[in-house]
Write a structure and sequence with these properties.
The chain is α/β, with parallel strands linked by helices and about 450 residues long. Helices cover about 35% and strands about 15% of the residues. The chain has helices at about 20-30, 105-115, 130-135, 150-155, 185-190, 210-225, 240-250, 270-275, 280-290, 310-315, 325-335, 340-345, 370-375, 380-405, 420-430, and strands at about 35-40, 50-55, 75, 85-90, 90-95, 120, 140-145, 160-165, 175, 200, 230-235, 255, 265, 300-305, 320-325, 415-420. The protein is globular and about 60 Å long. The structure holds flavin mononucleotide (FMN).
């Protein structure tokens, strides 16, 4: 009789400290003696863009007419030093995701989708594939601590260079690509053996601080003839100081990736316990840029948990020039698609929960190097889906901007926002809704 009743109906009380997930984690650790590795970003609830709301126009502000009045979405990235800055039609860009983590078809699809809407995509740890270069109108080339796949010819083929110092999912940590995903092609590009786990460096081998970074950035400019914008990407931790140092080192664009940011693989404990939320990082970055007098001259790209046009508009209202998406782009391609529900269950997961990107068993053929699984993924169809999603995000952001009376997404400002929790108000430095109170302001 009792086994038909749910645990709640039976009056059983779940511990908030030792909840079901915690118990399962302890049991798993006790059984295996190995820490848990997974992909995706932080899964715990954190103050986020959902804790902010826009103050649409009414009497004291004047809205724009949706169908008749223009609301610009374009952005120029990297005009500070580069001969050829990037001109994008939408501020929603595709974040760096490695070939190795993703299949070659998925990389190609990212290029197709991004190019269709006039935005950029980014390589990743492991180098540039001809498919993604071929399909990407604007391709940013990552220069990482591991130097996997690093090749001066590819640097010259890129449209911009992103020096990666860290990622929001694992600030202070290096990449991880397990043996099951090191196919012959992946191994060849990284000049490492096939089928062996790769843990890439967390520090660049040839510098110990910002002075060395300035020298490195100059070297990269010299070998690419000062043509390409140079980005510096940091995981969000001491963001105010990191952004100041990145600017002093010569960055044209600073990328700040908050702790909700996705990864292909790292320790769960790392994803959930290191870094600061995206929301907390943006005002710090903007403050640093403003104090240096370079806000809007050195562009700020924000990533980490961006899912829709409202998130885009909120990040921009807080002072970002553009955003980057990883996880949402993979979902748009077909990751976690319910059509593979049965197969997710066979590998111990479920559609909407799948995060074992490190295993390379992705039924959707996206986070895998298995030729049979990868063949299921159609780059043309995936690219189309991504382009649709990017269009929707851009139109959603435009809708909000118009409602706030703004003729360009970049005209959104903190004054358009309020917070619905004290934490979010303090982190985002906007007032709690219905008050003029910004907790911590003036400290
Ligand atoms: C599958 C996957 C692979 C990634 N690979 C890289 C990488 O090679 N280099 C890098 O800097 N960041 C990498 N990232 C992080 C993204 O560039 C980006 O910072 C993050 O995904 C943004 O957060 P979001 O996923 O919530 O949009 C990866 C993320 C994912 C999901």
């Amino acid at each position: 009789m009792t086994d038909k009743l749910s645990v709640e109906q039976r009056g059983l009380r779940e511990s908030a400290t030792f909840d079901r997930n915690t118990i399962a984690a302890i049991q798993r650790a006790a059984q295996t003696g190995i820490y848990d590795i997974r992909g995706w970003g932080a899964k715990r609830a954190l103050p986020h863009f959902d804790d902010l709301l826009f103050l649409g126009a009414s009497m004291s502000r004047y809205p724009l007419e949706g169908y008749r009045e223009k609301c610009g979405t374009d952005v120029v990235l990297g005009a500070r030093n580069a001969k050829y800055p990037l001109h994008l039609d939408t501020p929603v860009t595709i974040a760096g995701m490695s070939f190795g983590a993703l299949s070659a078809g998925a990389k190609e699809a990212l290029g197709r989708g991004a190019s269709e809407v006039g935005t950029s995509t980014t390589t990743g740890d492991g180098g540039m594939t001809p498919e993604e270069r071929g399909q990407s109108k604007h391709l940013v080339y990552q220069y990482l601590p591991s130097r996997y796949g690093m090749n001066p010819d590819d640097l010259r083929k890129a449209d911009a260079i992103e020096v990666v110092l860290g990622q929001g999912a694992k600030p202070g940590g290096g990449g991880m690509l397990l043996g099951q995903k090191i196919s012959e092609r992946v191994a060849g590009m990284r000049t490492l053996p096939e089928g062996i786990d790769q843990r890439s460096a967390c520090r660049h081998p040839d510098w110990t601080g910002p002075d060395d970074l300035a020298i490195k950035i100059n070297e990269l400019r010299e070998i690419t003839d000062w043509e390409k914008p140079i980005y510096v990407k940091v995981g969000a931790t001491r963001t105010y100081f990191d952004v100041k140092l990145a600017v002093h080192s010569g960055a044209d664009v600073v990328v700040v990736d908050g702790m909700q940011g996705g990864t292909a693989a790292t320790q769960d404990v790392f994803i959930e316990h290191v870094g600061i939320p995206t929301l907390a990082a943006i005002p710090q970055a903007v403050q640093a840029l403003q104090e240096l007098g370079v806000h809007r001259q050195v562009q700020l790209i924000v990533s980490g948990g961006i899912r829709n046009g409202a998130d885009v508009a909120k990040a921009m209202a807080l002072g970002a020039d553009a955003v980057a998406i990883g996880t949402a782009a993979l979902i748009a391609l077909g990751d976690n698609d319910p059509r593979y529900a049965e197969e997710y269950e066979k590998i111990g997961s479920a559609a909407g929960f799948y995060d074992d990107f490190q295993d390379g068993k992705d039924p959707a053929g996206i986070t895998t190097q298995d030729p049979e699984l990868a063949a299921r993924f159609d780059p043309v169809d995936g690219g189309r889906r991504l382009a649709n999603f990017l269009r929707v995000m851009t139109m959603e952001a435009q809708t909000i901007a118009r409602a706030c009376g703004k003729a360009h997404l970049q005209h959104l400002e903190p004054e358009d926002l309020v917070a619905i929790s004290i934490e979010a108000a303090a982190m985002a430095r906007v007032p709690l809704a219905g008050t003029s109170w910004i907790p911590g302001a003036g400290l």
